[in-house]
């Protein structure tokens, strides 16, 4: 039985990470808030505003994530009637309806996170019929596979980078805390995307032994894709969990004192 609490490293970007951290801390648990990315304004906000002011050339707008929704919510008060909104999962669909009303129609793969993703949305589009022209709202990168598949099936795809993602860089105090933690139990890490895996390993690369310490810990993630990536780079204890905070909290509490 562990006599010392495993460090809890939370890597989900944005407000969701803060919300989960506050929930855990209210129950007496200490957390390390290491969001994989900090969200910044786009390089060219005028281009974003201008492109969204006239959507007559498009018949679908694909919003890649809740962050994409938040990035453009102030530019669009109401979507044109001819536009179909689409996304890759229920979390972003909820964000869309929160931004533009519960009656907003959204095409997305329903169900748990494990049933979501680019591949699932692609199957829906294949059944429905591919759109003629799609605007993909995202950060600098993302959803490349889906973009390529749409192009291969005759869809004209334009990408609109509506925000930037600055990857995690540890502060000197975080590095000191990490160096001290290497002598104790390995961590529990909550990580939600494949991109975040590389970000984590890069952030700790200057600390000797940190990568091995991390890989010996438990990792909670929400989709088979990041799970496969984590296992590929050496993490041996990776568990899929639902996205709801209460389920993540239960999983963390279960693992806290596992030998």
Structure description:
- With 259 residues, this protein is an alpha/beta fold.
- Helix content is 41%, strand content 18%.
- It contains 11 helices and 12 strands.
- The strands form 3 sheets. A 5-stranded parallel β-sheet has the order 2-1-10-11-12, sandwiched between helices.
- β4 (60-63), α3 (66-72) and β5 form a beta-alpha-beta unit.
What is the CA-CA span between the terminal residues?
A: 5 Å
Calculate Rg over CA atoms: 20 Å
Please, what is the average pLDDT?
Answer: 91
Shape: elongated
Structure class? alpha/beta
The helix fraction, in percent, is 40-55%
Q: Care to count the β-strands?
A: 12
Please sum up the structure shown.
The chain is of the alpha/beta class and 259 residues long.
Notable characteristics:
elongated, five-stranded parallel β-sheet, 259 residues, alpha/beta, 12 strands
List strands and helices in order, with pairings.
Layout: E1 8-10, H1 15-26, E2 31-33, E3 37-40, H2 45-53, E4 60-63, H3 66-72, E5 84-86, H4 90-100, E6 106-107, H5 118-128, E7 133-138, H6 144-152, E8 156-161, E9 164-167, H7 172-181, E10 188-190, H8 194-203, H9 210-215, E11 218-221, H10 224-232, E12 237-240, H11 245-255
Parallel strand pairs: 1-2, 1-10, 4-5, 4-7, 5-6, 7-8, 10-11, 11-12
Antiparallel strand pairs: 3-9
